[in-house]
Amino acid sequence: MVSIIEVVVLGVALGTDAFSVSVAIGTRRLRLLLLLKLSLVIGIFHVIMPLLGLELGLFLHNFFGNYYFEDTIDKVTTAIGSGVLMILGMIMIYENFKSDEDDNNFDLYGWSLIILALSVSIDALSVGFSLGMLDTNIIFSCLILGVIATVMVICGLTLGDKIGKLLSGNAEVLGGVALIVLGIHFLLS
């Protein structure tokens, strides 16, 4: 049986991606409502993605007899998540040079919010494969993963906001570069 400490450690490990991306995005000095919305959406995705990974793993297992495609799916999802982060970083840098009208007018609504949450939660998909093979309460474990991710995103966005205040106009460029570097790092690791 997987202990709650092991699930918490797993949650912190999964949440580090979301935390580091949140620091970069937090340099945009988001409004409180957007900060809470982004944190909750990423937390919800950290609950849904392992469940989806579990179901996908079971589906593939029924067709092919084992988790033959686990590595391939992990590589594809990593490439997609990394690409989204790099594109988001480029957009942040572009918007910094394009206009100085409103620092808080960061376009993270609708699909862009969902795509960002998906990109930082996609590693939880492959965790779902593993959770399905362990003796654990899946729903409870996924809820813990979601709560930890939510808290880590709030901390990351808050830290990014403080860094943004220190760096003022150059914070967006730094945040954009950080997202691009993170995307490259996730792709190569």
Q: Could you characterize what this model shows?
A:
It is a single chain. The chain has 189 residues and is an all-alpha fold. The chain contains seven helices and no strands. The protein has helices spanning 4-26, 32-64, 70-98, 110-121, 123-133, 138-167, 171-188. The longest helix has 33 residues, at 32-64. The model has no long low-confidence stretch (mean pLDDT 81).
Secondary structure elements and their pairing?
Layout: H1 4-26, H2 32-64, H3 70-98, H4 110-121, H5 123-133, H6 138-167, H7 171-188
Helix pairs in contact: 1-6, 1-7, 2-4, 2-5, 2-6, 3-4, 3-5, 3-7
Short recap of the structure:
The protein has helices at about 5-25, 30-65, 70-100, 110-120, 125-135, 140-165, 170-189. It has about 190 residues and is mostly helical. It starts with a helix and ends with a helix.
